[in-house]
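Field: sequence (string)
Field: structure_tokens (string)

Example rows 1 and 2, in order.
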Amino acid sequence: MRRVQLGISQTVLADKIGVTFQQVQKYEKGTNRISCSRLFEIAAVLNRPIGYFFAEPHASDREARLVDKVRTGEVKEGLRLIKAFFEIDRPVLRRKAISLLESFTETKSKTR
């Protein structure tokens, strides 16, 4: 998610950490594990501390599962949604966007 937020392609990230873009794809999908040293390099390129890549202890299990779905590409629209959300520069519009999305889930659960 951070790579997309910064507008960095898989190829550019791969070049900066010395692997192929296919390897970056495998890292992002969770197909291949990332060594500690490689994760350190990725964190440096993405300008984040290494702890950024680990679930927060206070995050709920549901939130962690949702983040995992987005990270692994299971919810392909998730990355588009997150990118669009962070492009909204006015806090009031962000709150309205969240309310709108939440209203869809409330409607969906009421119709079941």
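Row 2 begins here:
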Amino acid sequence: MKIFCYLIIISAISMNCFSQQVVATVDRLPEVASGSFKHFENFPSKFVEVRNVDVWLPEGYSNKNKYAVLYMHDGQMLFDSTTTWNHLDWGVDETAGKLMQEGKVKPFIVVAIWNTGTKRHIEYFPQKPFESLSKVQQDSIFKANRSNGHSVFAVDKIQSDEYLKFIVTELKPFIDKTFSVLKDQPNTFIAGSSMGALISMYAICEYPAVFGGAACLSTHWPGVFNTKNNVLPDAFLKYLEGHLPDPKKHRLYFDYGTETLDALYPPLQKKADAIIKARGYTDANWITKEFTGADHSERSWNERLHFPLEFLLQK
């Protein structure tokens, strides 16, 4: 049975957001089965559109203790299937709470960053690899459509660098000030799936002094939804080769399924694995796992979330 435990926080920072587009108020906030939940409506930013941010705190959270921090993308999909568009969720509260109770991970909180819907793709799309392409290639990518015929990109400007600036220079300082957390790199992690996995990979490469580990589930190496004559995987992999952080100070987790959209990933992930191994990563600081039969959905990520959490947040 879910325990409805959340708090809407109206802080002074919200006064700066009225000139920006406001995220639509949700009818009902997620409920959590473990721990407690704080909701920050329309968190302001000078880099990206305002968005909701949720913070999950484990059972027994106390200012007398210090906690590691896991930043996660697609925040509205993480806790409660009754509030998500597809009626699925990651079960982050259940899995994290259980692992902490069993002593398998160090205490941590989760910062769930909501996506803004139409701009999700341009915020999660690694910017520097895209900008390394020719103008003709970039224009071709912006013409890409989904299977339903709708455009992949809402606008013609990638904004992932701005999105990461929001996390690192605006959201993280607020979290560090508001909650009893460990602020250092070895205790700061980032995670996501699909495009959220791509931006997590990009984040640890762009900000290696901020993030000590990244979990990339079902990494969407194609970038768009057409693999024919697609230059993006090579661009992402070339970027990865030149920007992977020091393996002595970082942990990387990758995985993929074999069904639906995940069926595209095995050969691309193998190329990424070769790059990671060549950089000096070993079993001590890097895992790539295959889940045969798993599809591209929150259901699958829910079932295997304990693997990246145990790996990144091990005591």
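free_text_note (row 2): The radius of gyration is 19 Å.
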